[in-house]
């Protein structure tokens, strides 16, 4: 039975390939092909689901070996990456649950997305996501999980920007994508450290040797993976990205942020339970972050006035609780909490459009008046603790300005030194130039030049000649006059400006970073 | 706070208040979504004629109110519009001078109509230089006839000779004295002196003294003044800054503003709303909280502390203050505020709606006003505008500083303006972008801006851009080239023509612009439907039953006028010809506030324009008190559970953890069931709910005990007095003409719709009941008409209802075809057999109605059996993934006011509102006047909402449902911070055919003319062209069309044979598109005249 595990992520991947290729080459397009697309996706994911259930059944009957390897993917010196899968335990249970939820949401989408301009694109992404998610859950090594992790994140990016013609959707998608890259850094570092210290990136090896790991190493590895989990499951301080995801179609909101993907971080913690158990520091960190997130989400959730945002903060709150439980070591509770939450929240997201009809005449319990009156508290909640704005202020804008400065540097200094192609000699590019030529005047006659040159060498020669000429002209021929003073002033101005620029915080921070980099 | 006497000026305050009140005309008038009722999307423009209203709206918002031309052309190719319709449309508008000759050749004359026809059917747009190059170089436009030229014209062109087309092109250019320039944008940086001199010569022609550079600066100054003068008319300061910096402050302002408004308007989504919003109002509540907001600091907004501390207490004062600060000229204030409101129309409209309906009952008693909203908006605008202006130009965001800055930096103005208009070629865009990025060293780059402005100017003067007069190869040359091919003109023809002839042709094309073409398309489209519709009515003359009730019908069923009931009635009558069906506005003349057994508040059930003065309550019947107790107990439990699931799981963090853990297995099963077997799952859930909360036998409390006090809309009275009841019943029966020939059973069939996961649910319900279910109205009417006291009063008023006649109220669910019957236990025993038979017949109609609906639903089985069809329809209504539970009023196109005999026997494809009215009982038209006053606005409202949402779903409608997100229980947004979307979603209008309602009344034209003269509201609709009116003479059967401006004209056309089918299903078998009217074989039976 173990061998079935390969097919589980493979089937949706084949479906995605078929739909993608079909759409690319025009075999699948327009309303007429909707049923073909839906059938391919539906069939593949249903098959995956049946296979996952079979695997689960045989696991429950204790018929599974525990892992299955189809061979070597990468071998270099001591680095040996197997293509292997987990076939027992929580991973299989979760794969079965996720595949059922995926089937339900896919079936939902068939009618819901009918006649949408992006119908085929949507099913392509959804199939790809299903494949990625199942790979993430079932892969026996960190690299496989990471591949699933990345593809799932990429699919989420594509679906937030489903309506890419709306600038808000596109901006939010990009923001989410960029935020998640922080988690990737953690994940990759975690993989690197585990390879460095235990010579393996198989989850089983990692867990098996966890007990022998010195606590410092365990803390380092587990912290790296915890950071990856924090971003993927939108824990503090990465929460704001989750609220930005609500631009996509209803079923994609349900599958990504209600039912499936957002739980990936919690899964990662559960998977690495033995490693975390060796690292009390990380456990404490996870618990604290989870608690902060839960409190944050519940406070912010109180003032959310649209269905999807309200649900997403409720989701964040429960995810926070899951992290808290992990941190406190209630692993069994977390695994049930994860599964239960995936089901219930998925349901809530799918039925979000009917929320107001479900609660007509059945109002929500208001916040106690004593708290509700606190204006400052309300502002804190409705502005979501300014987390987004703060990130903007502290990270996004300085970096953007830095990029801007670099662009400037590139355009005006590097290009200048390298020498850009000059216009053909004697040609003109604007009518004003022609006129000037006709009158015999020249606009750029600040100082006359003997020669033209391009590129560093050319310019150097040109400048030397010009300077000599100028020197001769101004100082030798005309004597020292007013010009010298004004040149001096200009020079001072430039120097001032340079100093100002260099003293701006972004450069200071940059220098600190560079110093650190050089130091290590 | 700045204490200048200026702010105390009441005149200014009045000016602002008046301006804000005026906004009611331009903002969307949609109610909170639970109360969705169809109305004319352009209700604020209804006082204008249709075409003018559309033109005005387009001028105001840039949204065109006609179907895109491509769609019209597609209709033409489908045969939904044909050449006869086009000719009729050309002839219909005398201003078009369709027959006028444009030019004459030896073998042909070319009339305006010829040109019009080609302009309608083929794209004669100007191209740009790259497109022209593409056409010539890649598409071989000069060696082959244009691909879209029809076959018969093609032969005239002598396509065989290779050079014919090239010759044609050259001849046209020669005649027009145009030269084809072959320049590519890339060459512009290296101009040859000859080229440049040539273009310079053109410039110098204008003004000999000024140099090109100076002239350019002069032009720029004019352009700057123009842009500034647009402020308040078509742009706000945000638009001005966006045009020059490319940054839209609304991106930053919108999320803040929307978050605040949503919290201020929220009707129960959030547990915590804007503090003190009801005591203080939106603006003051915001002002009180804003001091705690750290966003301005984090966003580094200049002067925010000062701006915030200066805010006056009153919203109108704030508006005045901010407008003064931005230095908007006082004369432009009204326009500026309107433009501001229209930038986020959905939210502005919702606040405006609330402001004008202080009695709106909601969980939230805040009274938001437009002044609040705009005061906040203006303040936020000022904060953010200041930031951009400071960062980019180092000036304050006010008119005088911006003006003087750009006057000094005209070159920069040119570059920025051109860059952000986005029509510069790549080489210039790149230069401009890198220049605008160097914001911090403005003064040192003066030469750079000047040079680039010169480059741009040169580009503008080159033949590659469109010249203002349109006289260019790409414009006039290319258009004529295409036109001549379609006219079948060859190079020799062109040689014979004068230059003026060609110019005349172009002038005709220019005059016949896209708006004119759209009008013609719309008329032609409507004409096509109207002809078929009238043909069917003519052929059906004297075929339909129940012109007179000479025999007693088996039963009579009064439906809502709704177009969705047309098929239901048709199938029912086909099964049993002895049944008579009637139609009327679905509140059955009983306007009331209704409070159902489980309701906490009353709901008005009547058209929105009416405010009910009576209240009706549903109570448990005597004898079921015990049942009621357990019902209420169970209901409370059900509600608690629902509250826990839908509200608690969002609100309560700790409690929801155990709840989620506990209910997950049940939810999982439920979710699986919903996905795989929606109908059984639904039945199971409602079965369990009923187990806890058993059904209670109820009756209506509708008879007033108090006869003394008068009922007033402000003080509604519980129940109706006997006289009031008799008035309602008699009035309604007279309107429908059912004053004699009562059958044993008279059923009043209200309607409503049920669907899952559908924020727009109310849009599928009864429009005559304010977007609610009409069942209670039917039920109360039947109960009134069954009372012996009322029967007596009716007899006194001349309506004798036989004692064996029994009225029954019922409700038809238009989504799943279910029929609920009310008060069956009261039906006398001797009527029960008849009722059983009727219910069996209804069952057939349900099946067949489902069958007919399936043909238009893409996911329904093709050619199903009636049972399969009904099964599909029922499942559809319970399927939470169905974004199209039913198709609503889509395809509605006409309304017939008259006896059923007019329409009975013909197939109208569910496109007709059917309203019963008997002209033979109404010689002076008094009854008709009432009927038209009720159905005219309702029908037009539905039809026009569908029309506008269809022609431009993005702007008039609310786009696709897929990203919709329910907000505050009053509307939908896309994502989490978009405008509120108003109008109908794409899923409701996909198959709609956008045309204005054809109202056909069975009456003498003289009677209609009198009503028309008396009733202003009908005149507005009819004379304004918002609906079309026509009349069918009750005696002769002749049809008259009301022409706007000239009155009724006889309808003349050649009689056509309509296909005759045995049964309805034969009419639509294998068809998925609209089906033209057809006749159905009539049994020679009783009742037919």
Could you characterize the architecture of this molecule?
The complex is a heterodimer of chains A (520) and B (1089). Chain A has 520 residues and is mainly α. In chain A, 72% of the residues lie in helices and 3% in strands. Chain A has 23 helices and 2 strands. Chain A has helices spanning 4-24, 34-60, 90-112, 119-138, 142-160, 167-198, 203-209, 215-232, 240-243, 250-259, 264-271, 273-277, 280-301, 307-328, 331-350, 355-358, 369-372, 375-382, 387-418, 431-439, 455-477, 482-503, 505-519, and strands at 67-76, 79-86. A two-stranded antiparallel ribbon of chain A has the order 1-2. Chain A is globular and about 100 Å long. The model of chain A is unreliable at 422-426 and 441-450 (pLDDT under 50). Chain B is an alpha/beta fold. Helices cover 49% and strands 10% of the residues of chain B. Chain B contains 42 helices and 24 strands. In chain B, the strands form 6 sheets. Chain B has a 6-stranded mixed β-sheet, sandwiched between helices. A 5-stranded mixed β-sheet of chain B has the order 4-3-10-11-12. In chain B, a hairpin with a 3-residue loop joins strand 21 and strand 22. In chain B, helix 1 (10-22) packs across helix 17, helix 1 packs across helix 18 and helix 11 (237-245) crosses helix 22 (410-421). The longest helix of chain B has 27 residues, at 625-651. The N and C termini of chain B lie far apart (82 Å). Mean pLDDT of chain B is 90; it is low at 1-5. The chains are: A mainly alpha (520), B alpha/beta (1089). Chains A and B meet through helix 3, helix 6, helix 13, helix 14 and helix 15 of A and helix 9, helix 10, helix 12, helix 14 and helix 24 of B.
